[in-house]
Write a structure and sequence with these properties.
This protein is of the alpha+beta class and 190 residues long. 35% of the residues lie in helices and 26% in strands.
């Protein structure tokens, strides 16, 4: 969705994706360290521009570039927003391997989801094989939700390949408290 939402903490900023980001996104998503845990991405920059063009027309999708000192270091998004139940998925979360800005980018996206978009449910799906990220979600971000609780999100068949985590306004204070600790730690290295 074409939007103007930005969020910043220190030298880390989330800003809307633009057509000019296509080459960076392709580079990030086709890096072999990242590609094995995400949907296949064409290495063709023009295909990415076409995808961004389609994305900009969507009403339920907020895609961001994560920047450190005005240099792109990753992506993150909130998408499939369901206004009726005030729920959305967050993901497309890829941070360059040499950056420690992941906790700050997560903190910023949670702030956008709950304090700007006023969502009541935010969930993420991470491939269970992506053990490092699943462990981060388990420890820091949100509780995993059980198979029987997935029906309202309409993703009940995916529990076998994804670890699904769910946040609500009630769980947010604890999540933000833990994220804050990790964010402060990572700021020492940025």
């Amino acid at each position: 969705m074409a939007h103007n939402i930005t969020a910043q903490r220190g030298n880390v900023r989330l800003r809307p994706v633009t057509m000019d980001d296509a080459e960076f996104i392709v580079e990030l998503r086709t890096d072999s360290r990242n590609a094995r845990f995400i949907h296949a991405t064409s290495a063709n920059v023009e295909n990415q521009r076409n995808w961004i063009s389609s994305y900009l027309k969507k009403e339920d999708d907020f895609y961001f570039i994560v920047e450190h000192k005005d240099r792109p270091i990753g992506t993150i998004g909130i998408y499939d927003v369901n206004k009726e139940i005030k729920a959305a998925e967050w993901g497309r979360w890829i941070i360059k391997e040499d950056s420690v800005a992941a906790p700050i980018s997560a903190l910023l996206v949670f702030d956008i989801a709950f304090n700007i978009l006023h969502l009541e449910h935010l969930y993420s799906r991470t491939m269970t094989q992506n053990e490092k990220v699943v462990a981060f979600h388990d420890k820091v971000l949100a509780p995993r939700i059980q198979h029987q609780d997935l029906k309202f999100l309409n993703i009940e068949k995916e529990h076998e390949i994804y670890a699904i985590h769910h946040s609500t306004p009630q769980s947010l204070p604890k999540t933000m408290q833990v994220l804050e600790k990790f964010a402060k730690l990572s700021e020492r290295f940025l």
